[in-house]
Known about the structure:
23% strand; 15 strands; homodimer; alpha/beta
Amino acid sequence: MSKLVIVGTVAFDAIETPFGRTDKILGGAATYISLAASPFEVDSAIISVVGGDFPSEYLQMLKTKGSDISGLEVVKNGKTFFWSGKYHYDMNSRDTLVTELNVLADFKPVVPESYKDAEVVMLGNLHPGVQLSVIEQMTSPKLVMLDTMNFWMDNAWDELMVVIRKVNVLVINDEEARQLTGEYSLVMAALKIMEMGPKFVVIKKGEHGALLFDENDVFFAPAMPLKAVFDPTGAGDTFAGGFTGYLAKTGDYSFANMKNAIINGSAMASFCVEKFGTEGLVDLERSDLNKRLIQFKNLTQFDIELA
Amino acid sequence: MSKLVIVGTVAFDAIETPFGRTDKILGGAATYISLAASPFEVDSAIISVVGGDFPSEYLQMLKTKGSDISGLEVVKNGKTFFWSGKYHYDMNSRDTLVTELNVLADFKPVVPESYKDAEVVMLGNLHPGVQLSVIEQMTSPKLVMLDTMNFWMDNAWDELMVVIRKVNVLVINDEEARQLTGEYSLVMAALKIMEMGPKFVVIKKGEHGALLFDENDVFFAPAMPLKAVFDPTGAGDTFAGGFTGYLAKTGDYSFANMKNAIINGSAMASFCVEKFGTEGLVDLERSDLNKRLIQFKNLTQFDIELA
């Protein structure tokens, strides 16, 4: 088993969907990633920052779920990053209502000594300069996975290109892949991204599943068809957490094993969207995941005979 | 092996995509369905109508590809159905520029005596009254599959409900499934459609693949990721042709075998969209299909171990 370093926001979210709304609840990319890695029982650490307003019971919960939080800085006289968004009826589009960076504005990530030798690094969506700083603190990572978004393409292109060149896996959604490469076809987009540095590309398509590419192969995992998607917040981060959690657990970074990692990530994401915020992940048992993995097998596996 | 009856338009299409445009070329639902069933070498018949302007070499080609055309009426002094459409850059939306029903306006389908005992019937998108007339001519069909569209929901709801009640499989796209049921979730939509009569529901999501439902199970097949989608015209019909062609070939109408049928349909559709009109299907060899089926295996199959 390998160590897993998780970088990203730990935040307050306020969410409105057609099915309900929340006040400030626990959110943030690193939160979802760490909760999604939890069932794999890897040795993981969260590198992030919160303010003095962040409840200690949330910190305790993250520890209980298996994350080292010695790299989670608490700025006593600062406020925690806050995001508020509203989803439309189709759940595929959302409006950001509020973004308050707060303590995130001056975030300088520090990887704890005992995690500098981690093999797997999951860089959640953040300023590419922050992501780069974490890579530079690692001694010998075997698999660095980067998430990013259109905001950094618009506002920090050069720094984004530097960090993309240094990672093994880029995870990105379909529209962002198109913006990053100027290619409409996701196959063409993935090929162009691999020319930028990453050996593997994961393209997330939300309710339409996810694609994994390397230079020779492509693999597809659907999203689990659900009776209702309650709240998509954090689904992409949860997917990334399941993906990297599984890879850290198995220590096998081959394309063949990444297929399994994608399925585990998709399974974890399916729990995330069934409830508000992190609710679907906090109480999840390993046995729940196993049942859903069997559902994914039934959903996708066939036994065709060639004529 | 079972006989396959194919009902639908045989038409002229004029197509404009971001990659080019055609004059009047061979098109129509029954054309695509029959070409897609061809690699399975089933005993199939096209029930349709064309005008005196329909080239005899097209009729000859359909025969050469294995379809009985004794039920394909030629109205000597009539004109063939004509459709013209333009695709937008994303290829997921299109505008219909021209629809000339011509001989289709008075179409009375007649199933040849020798095909009344066919086990498999593929009812391509047409007026539900025409579809019903074909069902009533069959003596003992085992599997009747129906395609329809929003136009008939808007203009022939009652007749559509009558025919839906009589079929085993409804194939429909995602937006139409939502319109038909008032449910946004495709899982909920499929459950409601099964209450209308069909034991199986296939929901087509275009480039995002297709879902197969019965009351207990769900199966998903992705679309093959391609470097370029050249022309989506006929992809849905090609999918249906591969699906029913495979089922007629194997004579096994179980959910488990429908999984294989969906994959065969998806494979055939992937050839369709790679070229203009029917070009990708006319010259297709069985060995091409076999190669693509292996690609579908590689695209979707994984071997997960449960912890």
